[in-house]
Amino acid sequence: MAEAMLEVEGLRAGYGPAEILFGVSLTLARGEVAALMGRNGAGKSTTLKAIMGLITPRAGRVRFGGRDIAGLPPFRIARLGLGYVPEDRRIFTDLTVAENLEVGRRPAEGRDAWTPERLFEVFPNLASMRHRRAAAMSGGEQQMLAIARTLMGNPAAVLLDEPSEGLAPVILELMADAVLRMKREGIAVLLSEQNFDFAAAVADRAYVIERGEIRYDGSMAALEADPALRAQHLSL
Asked: How far apart are CA 52 and CA 110, in angstroms?
């Protein structure tokens, strides 16, 4: 099995008095794409936020690259090589595409650095928009920019929160290609996702979360082949 980049064990987390996660465990190997799937409110985004340090875990262990990161502030976790693209993107709308990418730039350690030119190969739509302010871009274009900006930080792994939400089919194809390109580059990707077809197109492994607990942990191919299991945990 490939080297584990991210290990989450018994993670418990929530907001105020409300507990959302009840002992979530998952692993992410180097160069692996894993989809964290579940209905709205199941705990997908909370899991990513707890891993990234945006909310403090109440219990459990989070290890990244062999190092305990539970409780560290998000900026320190990011500097260790874990990228995060939130559901609301959070790009700088007053800056151009090129300026947004520069904001994300960090030196590469032991691998080829991502540059705007390499990213324009992955996201060709952005190449013709490099001087356009982000406020003048569509939602799908902003999503591509958010991922490209994160890659400029040369992460070893990336957390993607609902990357396909609200995207047109042609943009979905570009997004899937981008995720597969990250995999080929050896970047581990954990994506929170409700779009099963998108997840099945890119993910090696699937985790299904329901009411803050992992109900399925296995290959995406096995989940795809089991309509009863999908209906039980993923149908509305």
From this structure: 23
CA 133 to chain centre: 24
Q: At 202, list the tokens.
A: 């890119």
Per-residue burial over 142-181, b if 16 or more Cβ lie within 10 Å, else e, is bbbbbbbbbbbbbbbbbbbbbbbeebeeebbebbbebbeb
Segment holding 48, helix H or strand E: helix 44-52
Please give the Cα distance from 39 to 205 (Å, whole number).
18
- For 80-233, where are the alpha helices, taking DSSP H only? 97-104, 116-122, 124-127, 139-151, 169-184, 196-202, 220-224, 227-233
Give the chain's largest Cα–Cα span.
Answer: 49
Task: Determine whether 88 is exposed, middle or buried from the number of CB atoms within 10 Å of its CB (0-12, 13-18, 19+).
Answer: exposed
Distance CA 192, CA 235 (A): 16
pTM of the model: 0.93
Is 90 exceeded by the pLDDT of residue 166?
no
Q: pLDDT band at 236, cuts 50/70/90?
A: low
pLDDT band at 170 (very low <50, low <70, confident <90, very high): confident
Smallest CA-to-CA distance from 19 within 59, 54, 52, 74 is with 59
Three-state secondary structure call for residue 90:
coil
Comparison of pLDDT for 232 and 56, the residue scoring more: 56
